[in-house]
């Protein structure tokens, strides 16, 4: 590790850079010393795993203990400006600073509180360092447990940390503040795009089914209900005909609303039935060109059954819509997924806890029905626009992947000294002599000796 950092830096263990490791790097109380039953709505705040993210404190769902209990647990206390690190969960080693506007309190067993020595560290520098690949890789080597990864306090005290002079630490922290703010801003903008694309797709669907997508088409203002169109509707089998006990693995798929998303049928291999059961319920088998619709829960789940997907069964929570020569199956799917239909279904569906469609509601849905050729053209245009949106979404997801890795890449460069190479060349007096990192360590040793503090002893492996 030392060969990757500038020669002016020093490498030491976390416990080397505090006056009293036993008091400055501590974990929370054993579970038996702080039980959930002791939490209350007011008093002294306690910080839990869910309040700690990488470089970010989450001031939500704060629990409290009595002030008397907090005094009892004073060894495990924190105060604003301390750094808190997670030692349980995946990922491990999330670290952030307790904000200045947050009250002093107590940490739980799954956390470590680090109280820095201002002589040695800029707290922002150290927090960035603790969240960097250099530290994360060290923690990952010492993970215990499989279901819930964890590390012990000694591992954190023994972390190897590259330390620059205090002046360079501040410069690094300032540069990281600027660079990572730009990364966060870029990420926030990218994360908004999927929602924009969702609204775009809904707008396309709305235009498709109200005659506004193809401006060159002859106007067709005639409104018809689906019943007038002559669509055959069949509700999935009653619960008495298909029980949970009938489900097997790797059989013939049963399609319920959960399997229908964005016009695509995605069967579950765990929700299938045997050939024998399929034969018993054959009147609910799906045929090529059918439109299957979710009739429970979220409205607007609809998809066309395509060639190669025909051997499937309509589930209890779904309905089959079988078309005729008057209407294109895909056009019908677009109607059922459109904001107009969703709004109508939500208004007319029955049920309070979970909305439920029936055949009467679907039959009464009013639709614009152009001739079959125009329906084909509308479907073609919608698929073209959706493909365009899908391409953009894929590019955005790829960009997000790169941005998410950018933070760790920048942190890695920072703690190899790459962000401040020019600064060191221009400011040799701030990294040498009494301003050097080595001089910092000597000051800490002197302060420890003066206070009677002792380093934690480490057992040999």
From TrEMBL:
GO terms under biological process: DNA restriction-modification system
| Alphabetical list of Pfam families matching this protein | Methylase_S
Keyword set for this entry?
Answer: DNA-binding, Endonuclease, Hydrolase, Nuclease, Restriction system
Which parts of the sequence belong to the Type I restriction modification DNA specificity domain? Answer: 38-194, 222-402
What Gene Ontology molecular-function terms does this entry list?
A: DNA binding; endonuclease activity
Q: Does the keyword Ribonucleoprotein apply?
A: no
User: By its UniProt entry, which SUPFAM superfamilies does this protein fall under?
Assistant: DNA methylase specificity domain
Recorded hits in InterPro entries, A to Z, give: Restrct_endonuc_typeI_TRD, Restrct_endonuc_typeI_TRD_sf, Type-I_RE_S_subunit
Family to which the UniProt record says this protein belongs? Belongs to the type-I restriction system S methylase family.
User: What protein name is recorded for this chain?
Assistant: Restriction endonuclease subunit S
Instruction: Give the species.
Output: Salmonella enterica subsp. enterica serovar Worthington
Q: Provide the organism lineage as a comma list.
A: Bacteria, Pseudomonadati, Pseudomonadota, Gammaproteobacteria, Enterobacterales
């Amino acid at each position: 590790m030392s060969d990757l950092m500038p020669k002016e830096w020093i490498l030491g263990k976390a416990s080397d850079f505090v006056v009293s490791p036993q008091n400055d790097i501590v974990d929370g109380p054993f579970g038996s010393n702080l039980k959930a039953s002791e939490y209350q709505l007011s008093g002294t705040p306690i910080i839990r795993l869910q309040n700690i993210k990488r470089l970010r404190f989450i001031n939500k769902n704060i629990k409290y203990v009595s002030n008397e209990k907090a005094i009892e647990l004073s060894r495990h206390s924190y105060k604003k400006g301390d750094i808190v690190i997670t030692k349980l969960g995946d990922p491990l080693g999330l670290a952030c600073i307790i904000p200045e506007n947050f009250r002093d309190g107590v940490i739980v067993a799954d956390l470590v509180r680090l109280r820095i020595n201002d002589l040695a560290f800029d707290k922002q520098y150290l927090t960035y360092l603790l969240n960097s690949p250099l530290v994360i890789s060290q923690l990952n080597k010492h993970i215990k447990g499989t279901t819930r990864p964890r590390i012990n306090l000694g591992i954190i005290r023994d972390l190897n940390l590259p330390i620059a002079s205090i002046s360079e630490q501040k410069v690094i922290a300032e540069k990281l503040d600027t660079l990572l703010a730009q990364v966060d801003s870029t990420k926030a903008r990218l994360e908004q795009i999927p929602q924009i694309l969702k609204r775009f797709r809904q707008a396309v669907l709305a235009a498709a089914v109200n005659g506004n997508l193809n401006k060159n088409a002859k106007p067709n203002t005639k409104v018809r209900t689906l019943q007038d169109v002559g669509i055959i509707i069949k509700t999935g089998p009653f619960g008495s005909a298909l029980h949970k006990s009938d489900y097997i693995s790797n059989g013939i798929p049963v399609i319920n609303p959960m399997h229908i998303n964005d016009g695509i049928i995605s069967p579950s291999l765990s929700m299938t039935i045997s050939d024998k059961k399929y034969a018993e319920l054959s009147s609910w088998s799906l045929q090529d060109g059918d439109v299957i619709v979710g009739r429970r829960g979220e409205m607007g789940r609809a998809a066309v059954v395509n060639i190669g997907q025909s051997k499937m069964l309509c589930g209890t929570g779904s309905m089959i819509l079988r078309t005729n020569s008057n209407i294109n199956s895909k056009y019908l799917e677009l109607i059922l997924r459109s904001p107009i239909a969703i709004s109508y279904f939500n208004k007319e569906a029955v049920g309070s806890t979970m909305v439920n469609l029936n055949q009467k509601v679907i039959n009464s849905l009013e639709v614009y029905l152009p001739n079959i050729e125009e329906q084909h053209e509308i479907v073609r245009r919608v698929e073209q626009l959706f493909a365009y949106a899908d391409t953009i979404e894929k590019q955005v997801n790829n960009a997000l992947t790169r941005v998410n890795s950018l933070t760790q890449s920048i942190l890695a460069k920072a703690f190899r000294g790459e962000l401040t190479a020019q600064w060191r060349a221009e400011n040799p007096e701030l990294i040498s002599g009494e301003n050097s990192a080595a001089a910092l360590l000597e000051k800490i040793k002197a302060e420890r000796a003066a206070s009677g503090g002792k380093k934690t002893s480490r057992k040999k492996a």
